[in-house]
Design brief:
The chain is mainly α. The protein is 73% helix and 0% strand. The longest helix has 23 residues. It is globular. It starts with 5 loop residues before the first helix and ends in an 8-residue tail after the last helix. The N terminus is likely disordered.
Length: 189
Amino acid sequence: MIDCHEKICEVTEEDEKLVSKVIKGDKKSFEILVNRYRRPVMKLLFRMTGDYDISLDLGQETFLKSWKYLKSYREGMKFSSWLFKIAANLAKDYKYKNSMKYEESIEDNKSIQSYKENPENGLYIKSLLEKLEEPYKTAIILRFISDFTYDEISEIMAVSPEQVKNYIFRGRKFLIKLAREEEYYELPL
């Protein structure tokens, strides 16, 4: 097997066995997968959407889609990467569909101002990430917030690891530029 951490390899091998059982009709195995990945999927969705309720809906949709399309899962690909790809795509689709409906309220402007006043709590960076375009935003979130490796991100985003590095490099440059435009230079990235 490819050089990897023992725990990750065990989970990957166990996931493959569970997926195989699910394809054969074992619903209990799918429940184990859902319980294993519910929290990480929800964290990713929340970081991509910024809305807890939407994250819950998209999380449920992620697992429904994974159940529906599990037969199309490619053996050899990490189940977690396949699942996170579904979640990331749903979040991107949601953001795209709702970008035209979004209007900033006065309260939103006040909360953005409070992010600037207290950037240590991470909310300021979150406000900057909201302004970052795709695919840079997804790559930054997966790498620095969700702690995925470049190879895992390349599987999730369906691009080469070199392209992932490029997205992250450019994404960081855009974040620094945004921070400078807002006169906050000490961006901890």
